[in-house]
Amino acid sequence: MDLREAKLSNYNITARHPWELARLEVVLQFLKSIEKDKSAKITILDIGCGDTYVVEKISEYYHNAKFLAIDTAFTDTLIDELNNKFIENNNSIQLFKSIETATNKLQKSVDIVLMLDVLEHIESDTDFLKSMLQNSIIDKNTQFLITVPAYQYLFSSHDEFLGHYRRYNNKSLKKLINNVGLKHNKIGYFFTSLFLIRNLQAIIEKILPPKKNKGIGDWKSNKIKDNILYYMLIIDFKITYLFKKIKIPISGLSNYIICKKSV
Questions:
Q1: Which one of 47, 58, 170, 182 is CB 3.0 to 4.6 Å from 177, fit for a cystine?
Q2: What share of the chain is helix, strand, coil (3-state, %, to 5)?
Q3: 215 to each of 1, 19, 157, 159, how far by Cα in Å?
Q4: Given pLDDT bands bounded at 50, 70 and 90, which one contains residue 216?
Q5: Is 80 exceeded by the pLDDT of residue 168?
């Protein structure tokens, strides 16, 4: 969860939004396509890790991996509290406020870089990625897994609340990574059902002024409703993924790309 949303509940999050739970499964599926050996001693860099929920869950799957989690919104107090919790739980996650401080802790390159709904928050995504590729912890074998919100025409009050600068599509995402010196291995969309719903919401928002947006941090959980939505999104992703394998592209509310250095 974005720290801006987590702050709404004073970081006391008792229930996760079905979208967040389903996206975690999507990310794990993509990671399996990159690194099939879950016992591998790899290093994963999570940029823009938010409230650390996702990186904590991924660490339960890749139990021999080392994780560096970065978010510029971290306070020193929050970093100390969470790092102490990770040490107590024998969890191999370290938190940092910047890429520079994380780099100083590493003696080798990272295997996987996660940027999960991060680039849309950065004013110059091109400059940011170029700077990343010049970092000593990135080499020709480092894999990037990037997810972003899809389709600029769906930009809404929700994007404004979260501090987004833009949304993407396959064409713009390819152009971005090509311009900075990356080449893609896989690219596509997921969560088609939410894409259809957001299109309807976009039409309504043009007619009726939107209420104050609070994102998923203000989610009111209902077990039955949550489970229905969660499994709907999982089935949605599996169907879309299957169609992608037989080369039938389907649009979705989220965009993803897996890439690495072109040279």
A1: 182
A2: 50, 15, 35
A3: 10, 11, 10, 9
A4: low
A5: yes
Q: Write down the residue that tokens 């100390």 correspond to.
A: 80
146: three-class secondary structure by DSSP: strand
> Is it the case that residue 214 has pLDDT exceeding 70?
no
Could you give the CA distance from residue 12 to residue 80 in angstroms, rounded to a whole number? 17
Which are the contacts of 253, defined by CB distance < 8 A and separation ≥ 6? 149, 150, 151, 154, 189, 190, 191, 192, 194, 195, 198
CATH C-level class of 3-261 = alpha beta
Percentage of the chain exceeding pLDDT 70 = 91
Q: Is the pLDDT of residue 5 over 80?
A: no
**Extended strands (E) in the chain:** 43-47, 66-70, 93-96, 112-116, 143-149, 182-190, 254-261
**Domains in the chain: boundaries:** 3-261
Provide the residue type at 203 as one letter. I
Name residue 200's amino acid: L
How many angstroms separate the CA atoms of 22 and 237, rounded? 9
Q: Token pair for residue 86?
A: 């990770």
Cα first-last separation, the chain = 34
Return the amino acid letter for 111.
D
**Within its chain, how far is the Cα of 262 from the centroid?**
22
Give the separation between CA 234 and CA 15, rounded to whole angstroms: 18
CA neighbor of 114 nearest in space, from 143, 134, 85, 94: 143
